[in-house]
């Protein structure tokens, strides 16, 4: 086979692989310090997604993701809706439209004013925001009784802690809050619950055998919310995370000493 023929075959193979890859994001290659949100620009909402689960998947603060897409509380989204993942997403600071930049000029034209984001109309079944959502937790409790079998990874490789246990043992909410995700649509977490605590904190409970609360449910600290399992992993354990403003933090810093 001649050199040109081999090159043509390779080009055809690459085109076929790209065509079969689909439109949904694949696992990317990214460098230390980057998040998935830095790699991808946009995301198309699938059935079962919530704004919180998308922000969790891409390592973003849900408030910044909402602000970038002009989505108001209670953050209702719809299948096939296209979300911007990083345009105008700030790393910190209050959520507000970016101020217009005024360039020095001899022109007498008035500077442009910032455009206020349009508010979306919430669906009747949308989760209501109440005092539970507004108040950051004063204290945290252990979500399971077992010992820590894998610690938080300082490098970010392991974004939480793994707590050992027996199949079916109780998992409790680490603080009062509201369930903003209940499902198994986030790769690597199995049956997962995400609970919102105030405007800064989210906690997650992964690899459960069964989920005992639904999205939108108000939960108290210490309330049983799931049962330990091995979904999405190779051993029975609870994977527990706390994220502040979208960024993983070491849960041990928040949990009481045993």
Per-chain topology:
Layout: H1 3-19, H2 36-39, E1 42-44, H3 51-57, H4 62-68, E2 82-84, H5 131-134, E3 148-150, E4 161-164, E5 170-172, E6 177-183, E7 191-197, E8 201-211, E9 218-219, E10 224-228, E11 237-244, E12 247-249
Antiparallel strand pairs: 1-2, 3-4, 4-11, 5-10, 6-7, 6-9, 7-8, 8-10, 8-11, 11-12
How many domains, in number, for the residues? 2
Task: Specify the CATH architecture of the largest domain.
Answer: Distorted Sandwich
**What's the average pLDDT?**
76
CATH class of the largest domain: Mainly Beta
In whole angstroms, how far apart are the ends?
70 Å
CATH topology of the largest domain: Glucose Permease (Domain IIA)
**Helix content, binned percent:** 10-25%
Model regions low in confidence, pLDDT < 50 over at least 5 residues: 12-38, 88-128
- Structural class by sheet pairing and helices: alpha+beta
Biggest sheet, in brief? 10 strands, antiparallel
Sheet-strand content, in percent, reads 15-25%
In short:
This protein has 258 residues and is α+β, with helices and mostly antiparallel strands. The protein contains five helices and twelve strands.
Short key terms for the protein model shown above:
globular, Glucose Permease (Domain IIA), 258 residues, 12 strands, ten-stranded antiparallel sheet, alpha+beta, two-stranded antiparallel ribbon, Membrane-bound Lytic Murein Transglycosylase D, Chain A
In words, what does this structure look like?
By secondary structure, this protein is α+β, with helices and mostly antiparallel strands. It folds into two domains: 30-90, LysM domain (Membrane-bound Lytic Murein Transglycosylase D, Chain A); 131-253, Glucose Permease (Domain IIA). It is 15% helix and 23% strand. It has five helices and twelve strands. The chain has helices spanning 3-19, 36-39, 51-57, 62-68, 131-134, and strands at 42-44, 82-84, 148-150, 161-164, 170-172, 177-183, 191-197, 201-211, 218-219, 224-228, 237-244, 247-249. The termini are far apart.
């Amino acid at each position: 086979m001649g050199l040109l023929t081999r090159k043509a075959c390779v080009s055809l193979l690459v085109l076929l692989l790209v065509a079969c890859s689909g439109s949904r994001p694949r696992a990317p290659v990214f460098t230390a310090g980057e998040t998935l949100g830095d790699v991808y620009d946009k995301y198309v909402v699938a059935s079962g997604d919530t704004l919180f689960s998308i922000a969790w998947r891409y390592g973003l603060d849900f408030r910044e993701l909402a602000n970038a897409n002009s989505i108001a509380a209670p953050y209702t989204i719809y299948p096939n809706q296209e979300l911007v993942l990083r345009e105008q997403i700030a790393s910190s600071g209050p959520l507000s439209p970016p101020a217009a930049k005024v360039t020095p000029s001899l022109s007498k034209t008035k500077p442009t004013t910032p455009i206020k984001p349009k508010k979306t109309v919430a669906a009747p079944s949308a989760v209501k925001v109440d005092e539970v959502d507004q108040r950051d937790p004063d204290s945290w409790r252990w979500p399971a009784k077992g010992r820590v079998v894998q610690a938080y990874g300082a490098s970010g490789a392991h974004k939480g802690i793994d707590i050992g246990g027996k199949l079916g043992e109780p998992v409790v909410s680490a603080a009062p809050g509201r369930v903003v995700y209940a499902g198994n649509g986030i790769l690597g977490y199995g049956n997962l619950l995400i609970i919102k605590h105030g405007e800064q904190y989210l906690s997650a409970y992964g690899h459960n055998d069964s989920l005992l609360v639904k999205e939108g449910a108000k939960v108290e600290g210490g309330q049983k919310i799931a049962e330990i399992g091995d979904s999405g992993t190779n051993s029975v354990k609870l994977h527990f995370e706390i994220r502040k403003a979208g960024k993983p933090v070491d849960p041990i810093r928040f949990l009481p000493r045993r």
